[in-house]
Amino acid sequence: MPSRQNLPLHSPAVSPAMPSSATMPLFARTPHLGEGSEAGFRNRIRDYFTSTFDRYESLFECLANEAAYYVKPIALRHPLIFYYGHTATFFVNKLLLTRMITARVNQRFESMFAVGVDEMSWDDLNDAHYEWPTPAEVKGYRDEVRALVLDLIEHAPLELPVTWSNPWWAIVMGIEHERIHLETSSVLIRQHKLEYVKHSSHWLPCTQSGTAPVNTLVKVAEGDVLLDKNKTDCWYGWDNEYGVHETCVSAFNTSRFLVSNQEFLDFVNAGGYLNHHNWEDEGKAWLTFTGARHPTFWVKKTRGWYLRLMTEEVAMPWDWPVEVNYHEAKAFCNWKKSETGLPVRLPTEDEWYRIYDESGLQAPQQTLANANIHLDHFASSCPVNRFAHGDFYDVAGNVWQWTETPVYPFDGFDVHPIYDDFTTPTFDERHNLIKGGSWISCGNEAQRSARYAFRRHFFQHAGFRYVVSEEVQSVPASHYETDKLLSEYAEFHYGDECFGVANFSKALVDLALTALANKPLQRALDIGCATGRASFELAKAFDHVTGIDFSARFIQLGAQLARGETLRYTLAEEGELVSYKSRSLQELALIDTAQKVEFFQGDACNLKEQFSGYDFILAANLIDRLYSPEKFLQQIHQRLNLGGILMIASPYTWLAEHTPREAWLGGFKKDGESFTTLDGLHHYLDAHYKRIAEPREVPFVIRETRRKFQHTLSEVTLWERIA
Amino acid sequence: MPSRQNLPLHSPAVSPAMPSSATMPLFARTPHLGEGSEAGFRNRIRDYFTSTFDRYESLFECLANEAAYYVKPIALRHPLIFYYGHTATFFVNKLLLTRMITARVNQRFESMFAVGVDEMSWDDLNDAHYEWPTPAEVKGYRDEVRALVLDLIEHAPLELPVTWSNPWWAIVMGIEHERIHLETSSVLIRQHKLEYVKHSSHWLPCTQSGTAPVNTLVKVAEGDVLLDKNKTDCWYGWDNEYGVHETCVSAFNTSRFLVSNQEFLDFVNAGGYLNHHNWEDEGKAWLTFTGARHPTFWVKKTRGWYLRLMTEEVAMPWDWPVEVNYHEAKAFCNWKKSETGLPVRLPTEDEWYRIYDESGLQAPQQTLANANIHLDHFASSCPVNRFAHGDFYDVAGNVWQWTETPVYPFDGFDVHPIYDDFTTPTFDERHNLIKGGSWISCGNEAQRSARYAFRRHFFQHAGFRYVVSEEVQSVPASHYETDKLLSEYAEFHYGDECFGVANFSKALVDLALTALANKPLQRALDIGCATGRASFELAKAFDHVTGIDFSARFIQLGAQLARGETLRYTLAEEGELVSYKSRSLQELALIDTAQKVEFFQGDACNLKEQFSGYDFILAANLIDRLYSPEKFLQQIHQRLNLGGILMIASPYTWLAEHTPREAWLGGFKKDGESFTTLDGLHHYLDAHYKRIAEPREVPFVIRETRRKFQHTLSEVTLWERIA
């Protein structure tokens, strides 16, 4: 591996962000990953890599001294020395995973520099765990990684295009990852005390400022939004961008400009930070905890308001966009709403796409962007009325724009195999999307499709525009069910076949429908429906299906599907490792059944009056989980029409934890002879039913981990009500 | 169904047991079940049934009043009213099981009369559970059952021969069952107080008695014993008679006569019941608990010793055989031993066969028996020197003879599907065989092959003869492993395939042997061998195999097989119902490997020095059950020869209950990336091994119940030691 020690730290390719940069090469754009020759591709990726790697290192020029590397700018984040090494280690880890390399570069450094962007716990940040190396040592390590990656870019086997499952994806992912950290590290530097930062000629802020324009509303017509990125797409994307999202957005009004410091000052002066009533609950808690009185980068001096930039404080540029977290933006909207009587709020993610699509904007091309983005202009914000996009300003660039929308997966979402925790930990309805990018957002970050999300109290170079709309936005479901039992059942009902065993619910319903030939198919009851698959399958034939289960948690999953939502759950793989899975009725060709199925919580041994008049009742894997199977069997005929059929399927796995020993239907010696559960069923059912056909065993498989399964045979009997 | 109310209670076919009976028809012998015409067979079975049913009813003539039906003769048994109904109910239950009938005769009676011969618990005998019917009601019920059975005998479809799996087996079983109760009820009547019994002209005891002959020893030469009854045999047998038993018995001496009351009196007079030192431990406990001072049917009156017969007490007939339980018989032998210095003991079951075979005796034929058996002569014992059989007397008949042998299953033993608890509950080494039959032993009981066993403290019409032999008898293994985990593993290793998945141990060894081609095959280690199947499989190729497991209980099963014994275990079927299973190395064609395998208890994380120098080490389903897999992996190369192979198979099912979370090899995020167990294996093994070939998954299935299985994939990796 050639030593890179002698490479100039800042190569001529670097385009420092400064107003005069128009004459300099642009900071490389995220490349198309399929076009042109192999050699052309290698060149393109090399440029993209080196420009990124260099630019990232140049950021650390803004640190004034060694202490700046080791003192944490904010408590919940690593010191900057970590981030200096982290982006290099990331390359190594991902290259190992796609097997482009087989050995580590520096085991010790790679253990130190591996973890930590969002949501770190206190334990992860225990300083005692680390004995940080010097910046020079880390630089040496970075040089080794740089050489390694350049060697791969030059020599590794390559098959174009490079898409989602190509091993080279790891290289592009490493570059895009470093671009994210270019931005987040710039925020940390901005949060550092002034004594730790210094001026750098490569990071020059905008010097222009003035009086802010008066904000006005612009109408956005009703329109469709479409996002549709698939795994063969030739532009790099993070996992959450993939899949299909299509919706129609009602007309709304939006502010022409981002909210400026000027506009926000009214809120501050109106006691916005003192009167808690404009704040949402979570915002109130944040406000109480931090005692904030104004935006975090605002500095109040005796001579007036100043604004903290990356390496300096400047007299408040009132026409620049205010930078706040979600809570502050939301409180402003609520205040504005009470002031104006208008339904002011933040835009949803979809409303932002509508604004973007209406504005005619495009992602940065190979010319200087008409937006304060991608380091094309400044190492800071600039006036909100500088970059017009159609009827709007700053649709993208300047600062990120908070939305009302917590990040959620599109239909068809899948984690990337080498980075399964990029988005999934944020599917908790506590991470809101920011859109549009800031002055330092580069590469993928500058795309319309980019979907970054942060906790609502987090600070980035982020502000907001507001909308006026009566439309109440619903929060898309993003939760992944992680409860072991629920997710096992979700997979059992809606997931993949194991060992070639057909879906159990479907197999039962197929059997039932054969037995029901020429019988009425109006109403069916699926008692003990669990997560409801059989209810939907029954609704293919029946006009109405009632699904009842004792567990409200089970039913919620079925109800979620019935609402047309996607069911998401994790699957245990090995130890604590999980995979992510989603299913919808659409995929299963069951969407047409949704409106015929109703789910209720209920007790099979004590059913409410309303559940009666059924032509068919299914009790699948139920009787050996009841506290009193006798009660169930003795009463259930009252709910079944004469001539109707009761289907019982059970492995007869009697366990004292579910059914007291004395309540078992069978599986013991009675009067000296083996008394099976089938004997017990006859005992309780023969008065009202005729058993039709011989019992048969239908197999089912419940997946516990990637390698461990319960494989069970359920005995199926059919009972026709005759009395 | 024709009413049987008008049938005479005692039909002319009944042959009362009395000395003058020589001119009366003999009590029907157990019939051949295959020969002759269908009509002839129906006649034969009808006679066998009616004579038995009648004779059983005639026994109750000996009861003096209604109270005699309801007062328990002994605390641990039902009152006689139960037994009066029980033999009829038994027919119904077994006929239902073979589907010769489909409905019960009397649900309430059949619930009352179903259970209870041996070893009842206090709960079963709770009087509150029963409201006994009157004897007349039971007689009415018996008549119904009689008519039912006769109707079947006349009209049911019949296919000859009637053997083990023929539905008609239920009828023959019912008859033989009633004959057993003929004897056991006669014992209960004998145990009743005199006020409850009365003389019956159909049950006349022997009136002959005198001075007992002096007992002498007769030599029995060394000889073979063979029992070999299979399921196509045309003579009825109980389950424990089936299978093969073949052995050679060393020469021994045995008493010419059964021990008479006279001979036993010496022991009583010598303080035999007062000095506990001649009693075995269990016998001592019985003696202390009961405070017995003499045989149970002996009555001490002021005018001397009397003997209780069925319905009267008579002056002690000193030349009749003494009737005792095993403990008393054994104490007598021990006393005799200390008196004579000779190795006196009871005969083993096999020694009894040798005596029988030498005596030239045959089971009762169609002429009057030359033995006090089958009710051919008396309703009591008779002098011990009345019936000579070759050099011996009373080889069969008069009273049963206790043996030293606890009942155990022959090779090939199987429970009968309609009576799975006839013998199995007695396979506990606490039930000793009695042989030879008594004066009332009829049908199957009178056969050489009959194998009845009772708890050692139990009383029947049973006494003993003794043998003198230095031969120490070993107790054949009879225990069925019922521990859930052990029996599941026994089946997993030695049982049947489920879902077409090949035997796991065998599959692993096959893979190993392919990898070991051209390598030395001297010594193999099976670490975590459990019940040892892979050890035996390895021994097909290796000269020596060591099997080590942490669980001594697992190893015992393997060691038992290695000794050539049969492994017996129960399989959970449904609820508490079980089936019975046995396996031997012979059946599995592994018997030749037995002497090459050694089992040890040991800790895989802390192996003793001696276990080293292996060419191959197998760790199957081990690593995720260790408390420190790291210790195991870091040390195991010391036990493997250079060039040798370590095979690791595991589903990587990490559970905190076996392995503390911090000791897992993988299955978690490490430095931000998924760290699999395979990564962990490389981490610990790469210093000493080269992994050969790609990992592959080998499935295995563990059966939990008839319908519930664990179906698991074990990842197999092979590691060649290189350093």
Automatic annotation (TrEMBL), chains A, B:
Annotated transmembrane regions: none
Keyword terms: Iron, Oxidoreductase
Keyword Chaperone in record: no
GO MF assignments: formylglycine-generating oxidase activity
Bias (Low complexity): 11-20
Region entry Disordered, spans: 1-20
UniProt pathway annotation: Amino-acid biosynthesis; ergothioneine biosynthesis
Domain Sulfatase-modifying factor enzyme-like: residue ranges: 217-467
rRNA processing in keyword set: no
Domain (DinB-like): residue spans on this chain: 49-184
Protein name: 5-histidylcysteine sulfoxide synthase
Provenance organism: Cellvibrio polysaccharolyticus
Organism ancestry: Bacteria, Pseudomonadati, Pseudomonadota, Gammaproteobacteria, Cellvibrionales
Protein encoded by which gene: ovoA
